[in-house]
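Workshop exercise sheet. Pairs work together: one partner reads the sequence aloud, the other fills in the structure field after running the prediction. Swap roles for the next sheet.
Pair: D.N. / O.F.
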Amino acid sequence: MAEDSIVAQHFYQLWLDNNVTPDSIKDDWLEVTLNFIAKARQELSFRTFVGKINTEIVASASCQLFAGLYPSPFKPSIRQYGYIWNVFVESAYRRQGIGTKLTKTAIDYLRSLNCTHAILHASPHGKAVYENLGFVPKNEMILDIRE
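Structure field:
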């Protein structure tokens, strides 16, 4: 879709805004992201919502069914996760409620897919926004096992 390149650019910028250095990001990040979006659109009901000022896209939020990290033994009526990712607002337009509105729109879309939960990984900048929307911080535990 026409907006996919802008969404991919937002995804790239999101990482830079969270102190990831450009040399840590793959050279083919754009192709990787666009391929992911295309596959998720076909297999996981992927959708992107954009925020526009006049005709310029200044924000985006993406969501999809969560494929899981392992096979789910649960009936979808008990546990069907939706995943929200890449909530991004260009710096000049932040703190105006755009990210909140896009996140609510993503939640509504996931609800229309009969998701039982919406999950996301919050950046330090977005944590308060998501908590205000009712997201509950959980204890994801990560161990760096590189040597």
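Discussion prompt: The chain has a mean pLDDT of 93. What would you look at next?
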